[in-house]
Amino acid sequence: MAHLQAARLSGGRSGRLPPSHDRLFRCVSAPLLPRRPRGSKGFVRTRATTPSSAIARVASSKRAASGGKVGAALTLTEPQVAEVPSLRELRQAIPKDCFEPDTRESLKYAAVDLAWMFGCFAASPFVAEHPILTLPYAAVTGLAMWSVFVVGHDCGHGSFSKSNVLNGVVGHICHAPLMVPFYPWAYSHKQHHRFHNHRTKDMSHPWMKAEEYKETNAVVRALALDHWIGLYLGFPGYLLMEPEWSSTDGSHFWPWSRLFDRAPKNERLKCAVSSASCIAFLAGTFAFAGGPVNWAIEYGAPYLVFSWWLFTVTYLQHHDHDTETFEEGEWEYVLGGAETIDREFGLGIDKVTHNITDCHVAHHMFTDMPHYKLERATEAVRGVLEPRGLYKRRDTRDFVRKVFTLHEENGHCIDASADGSRPRATRAELEALLPNNLVLTSDEKRQ
Known about the structure:
Elements: H1 6-11, H2 53-65, H3 87-93, H4 103-122, H5 124-129, H6 134-157, H7 164-175, H8 182-194, H9 210-215, H10 218-226, H11 230-240, H12 266-289, H13 292-318, H14 333-337, E1 342-344, H15 349-352, H16 360-365, H17 374-385, E2 393-395, H18 399-409, H19 427-433, H20 442-446
Parallel strand pairs: 1-2
Helix pairs in contact: 3-17, 4-6, 6-7, 6-8, 6-13, 8-12, 10-11, 11-13, 12-13
């Protein structure tokens, strides 16, 4: 290419969805809800005006080699970075059959994972009689629950089968035991994909500047955004809480939640159906356990492990010290998606959890591919993005250490520095809300 054009990168055609791909997001018709608190503008965690750090490095090396002349040719030793590819180019690189779900194959995966999970639940009374087995039981069952979630996740995207009815039925069977309202979660999750790494329109893990971090409720900051306990309770908190007291998108259980303010009218009814399925299953677990202590062992413990897996995988997919976010006018679909990270967890975990860990970039670009075809799609997408310096793949076999360390250093503050310098809830803030507070804050632990 002749030269890099930052303006073209930040506002060019490459981030717009071609008409042939509009069907990917036709189901998401409502404008996205602005994230609270509002009012922040400006490009976040970028270098100059160029959105991609890989492109910025090449631009910098070109300027240095040419005495500051941006139009100078690249040397043979430098990566040949072109403009961000179009969504059409990426899609054409992927084998067409990757976009065709095989209903029998999907049902096979669902049956195996559900049998694994319910088999563990069936053995739980024995564990309750021998509490020493609680930790291994919770570890195995929690991982099974996470694998079941991934199958239900395909249902939410419509990549489980071509039947919306079957997707809805299997999605509820998979998600109700996990206390995840299927339809509301599918709705918010589609918004997350549609605007991945858009600083104000992305959903799920919040992107927050330092000043927004400070304005968030101190208790939420201490327990969810700063403290390690957020890795276990962050996801149920995200599903339950309204944004007035948190940094969430709105309750996924309450039909009159702010989450549905601009959603199609039937989303509120669908929320009621999905919430009822979760409540019914939860009531069943209490009846089956026969007491709060047994319930904590048989269901509560594996649920916390499942919640940890969900937080860990999704947080690491979209966070690292070099992760970029983009403001309105600078964000592009492909550019935002390229900030997703394929992480290899190893130990067979990638396979057991249906490659949701190490094949996530391709999935984020195209949600209509079933999980069992993502490995082939990833090779194709990697072949387009990697030569341009736009593909992130990282060995994360130390994922346990990585998630706790990164969450401690960055939390959800996109202005955080690599040494963990960012706003944190102080004891004074907490005592103003909770006079009898006994929480040891992150600031005090670091002193």
